[in-house]
Amino acid sequence: MSLPARVPGLTLPATGPLVDPFGRVHTYVRVSVTDRCNYRCTYCMPAEGLDFKPRETLLSFEEIERIVTVLHRLGIRRVRLTGGEPLVRRGLHHLVARLAALGLDDLAMTTNGELLGRRADELARAGLRRVNVSLDAIDPGVFAAMSRGGDVQRVLAGIDAARAAGLTPIKINAVMVAGTNDDQVLPLVRAFADHADDTVVRFIEYMPFGDARRQHLPAAAVRDVLARHYTLEPVGPGPGGPAVDWRLVETGQRIGFISPLTEHFCQACNRLRLEADGHLRTCLSRDDTPSLRDLLRGGASDDDLDAALRRMVWGKVAGHEADAAVFRAFEGVMTRIGG
Ligand code: SAM
Ligand code: SF4
Predict the structure, then answer these.
(1) Ligand 1 midpoint to CA 307 (Å)
(2) What total number of domains does the chain contain?
(3) Domain region containing 167
(4) Stated pTM of the model
């Protein structure tokens, strides 16, 4: 898929929705609430962790609520909480309750599921609608190796708790790393075969941070594995999302494929990413916007924020340049960006 072209004659609008020079209207924000994590997934973080940001540099819940309120006014309808691991941020349900009160179309969270068993009920009661759970393997050894110590049974129990709390539909996100979890494609699909009505397994292409070229496993290779055991029927993309979905005729399961490298989806990008320290990433591959936290703490009004957000979105690039051939490393690290 090619990158979008500038729309001739389009100028930075002072009112109306959040649009960029390529005519893309933004309706979705991913909010990272912390850069910390209780896992150390091999594809995301080094074993020793990172130089985590001091607590006072992170946005408070009040600051996140203020930014999301202005974004909502600008047409953002869907919010996803992420991290790091969002459940390591204390009192997350209080933030959920604040955001739920804004009347968004969707309020979801992406989690590694380790702490979900104990928290699913409280989050659902606060107004969270649904969860995506990252799960790269069913085999306990493979899972522990990829997450550097995670317990797959706890995550599976967390998924059950989320289902019981009504945090559905649930998406299970598996990052596929060649030579590591290629043999987990079928186990992952089979583990959720009895929940075809509310659980979608999605296979995500590993994105290159650093020199990771040899570990890339294209979505097409995963589809081929499934095609040897099931009949696959295309069902098209979900609303506004990057996944391309297929149905397994034999089980009725919906399976998603997210292919940022081999099937570029920048053309339809409608998303923004708010990092835990208040930087707004307008593209996954870019790390150059000013801090909204500094604006807020400097006394900016909602109108100042409105204008700053419009300018930042107007500065958005056409898309990332990474593809399976180039493997240009993205700037920054995933645990800060939040996926
Ligand atoms: N800790 C939470 C989790 O793991 O679900 C939320 C944050 S995590 C950074 C968000 C998503 O990014 C996860 O589904 C994770 O698997 C994915 N991710 C992290 N590093 C990645 C990479 N290099 N390529 C593709 N996906 C990645
Ligand atoms: Fe933590 Fe999620 Fe990164 Fe894994 S992918 S290290 S769970 S932030």
Answers:
(1) 31
(2) 1
(3) 28-336
(4) 0.93
